Amino acid sequence: MGDEASLETGGAPERLGPDRPPGREGLYRDIGAVEHPKDAACGFEVTARFERFNQANDIYARGQWDPRIRSEKVINWFKGMFRPGIGARDTSGYTIRDFALRNAGWMGTNLTIQRSLAEGRVDGFLDHIQPYSEPSPVKVTIESTADSTEEIKRVARLFGADMVGITGHDERWHYTNSFSTRTLSEKPYAIPDDLPNVIVIATSMHYDAIQSYPSATAGVAVGHGYSRDFELVQTIATYILNLGYRAVASVNDSTQAIPYAIQAGLGEYGRNGLLMTPEFGPRVRIGRIHTDMPLDHDAPLRFGVKEFCDTTCRRCAESCPPQAISYDAPTEEITSQSMTVGIRKWQVDPEKCFKFWTNQGTECGVCMRVCPYNKDTSKAVTRRYYRAWRRLAASRLQPLRSLALWLDVRLGFGKRVKPEKYWERFRSSGR
Q1: What is the CA radius of gyration of the chain?
Q2: Residues 418, 421, 427, 431: what is their CA dihedral angle, to the nearest 10 degrees?
Q3: H or E segment to which residue 357 belongs
Q4: What is the helix (H) or strand (E) element at residue 285, kind and residue range?
C-alpha cells in the first residue's frame, strides 16, 4: 500500500529493477471479499492467499524493465510488431512475406497505440483506450434493462463480435498499479471503480492460419484478432457514450480478461491457460467495455472443459515447445512473479513461454492449434462432428471422454500445416 501512496503524491517515479521490484498490495482478504457468489459456477478456486496483480509484473512489462527477462531478442520482438524486416530469415514460415502478413494484421491495433504514445500511453496494452469524446450531455432513458441488454448485444454482433456476455464489476481482476514504458516504473491505475457493468466480447481468429503454428505466418491470426478487438471495443464504447453513459474500452490492459469472460458466460478455463469457448475453443481474442449503462448480467457457462482437461487431455502440455504448460492438477503454487498469487488453477509458466516467443521472433500458438476444442465450425461437416464430439468430451463416463480424445488424434485434428501449404490455400481460396 505504501508504494501506491507514493505514486499518488506526484513524486518522481522510481525505475523498477531487481532491487526495486513492483509493489505488492498484500492479501486481498484484508481489503475485500476473496470469494464471489459466481465463483463456484465459474470453477474459480480463489484462496486466502489471493493478491491482486500488479501490471508491472506482467511478462511483457518485465521484458522492458527486468534484466532477467529483457534482452536484445526481446527488444527486437517488440520492435518487430511495428518495423518491417525484423526477425525475417530464409526459413519456412519466417520469410519477409510471412512477417509482412503478420504485421499487416496488427495494423488496426498499431494505429490505436500510436495515437497516444507521445503522451506516454500504450492504449489497449498498458492503458485503457482513451475515448474520442465525453458522454453525451443528454442521457437516453432506459426503461428495461432486458431491452438495453439485448440492444447492446445486437450492436456488438453488428460490428463483428462472435460472442458477447455481460457481468458485474469484480475488483479482484483489476490491477493494483499500471506500468509506464516511458519511465519504466509503476503509475497509478486509471479505470474508475464506479462502473458496475462489464461487457465482454470475443472475436475468433483465423483457423487456417492458426494451423501453421509455430510460424510468423500464423501471427496474422493474432494480429488481425487484436485489430478486430480494438475496433470493436471502441465502436461499442462510442455507441454507449453517445447514449449519455460512461464507457471505458479495454483489451489487454487494466484487468484480467479471462476471469471476466468466464463470469460473463463466454466459456471455461482450460489447461492451456486460455479461455475455452464452446464454438471456437481457445481461438479467440477478448475485449471489455466497463460502463454504467444499466444492463442485465449473464450466467457462467460450463460444458465439460474442466473435467476433460483434468481427467483425459494433455495435448497442449505434450505439444508445448518450451514445456511451459502443466501436466499436473490445478495448484496455487507459482514459479514466477508474472503469475497471480492465490488462485488454484492450471499454471502456465510465462517466462518459458515468452522466451520461446522471443527466440523465434514471433508469438507461439501451438497450444491453440492442438486443442481438441479448436475446430473450423464454418464448415457444416466439421460443425456436426464437433457438436457430437463435445457431447463425448463432456460425458461423465471416462471411456467416452477417452474416445473423444482418441478420435481427435486419429482424425488428424491439430496437426501442423506447413506455412507453404497455408500460402497455397490462401492464394487459391478466391478471397
Answers
A1: 21
A2: -70
A3: helix 350-360
A4: strand 284-291
Number of Cβ atoms within 10 Å of the Cβ of 424: 12
Q: What is the pLDDT of residue 292?
A: 98
Which tens digits make up the pLDDT trace of 236-273?
Answer: 999 999 999 999 999 999 999 999 999 999 999 999 99
**Secondary structure class of 203 (helix, strand, coil):** strand
Q: Which residues pair with 23 in a beta bridge?
A: none
Residues 121 and 242: beta-carbon distance below 8 Å: no
E strands present in 217-280: 247-250, 268-269, 275-276
Which residues make beta-bridge pairs with 275?
269
Calculate mean pLDDT across residues 272-293.
98
CA distances from 104 to 36, 62, 210, 222 (A): 41, 26, 16, 11
Where does the pLDDT of residue 62 fall: very low under 50, low under 70, confident under 90, or very high at 90 and above?
very high
Nearest to 200 by CA among 244, 169, 242, 241: 169
Phi-psi region of 343 (alpha: psi -120 to 50; beta: other; left: phi over 0): beta
* Lookup: cell for 330: 490445478
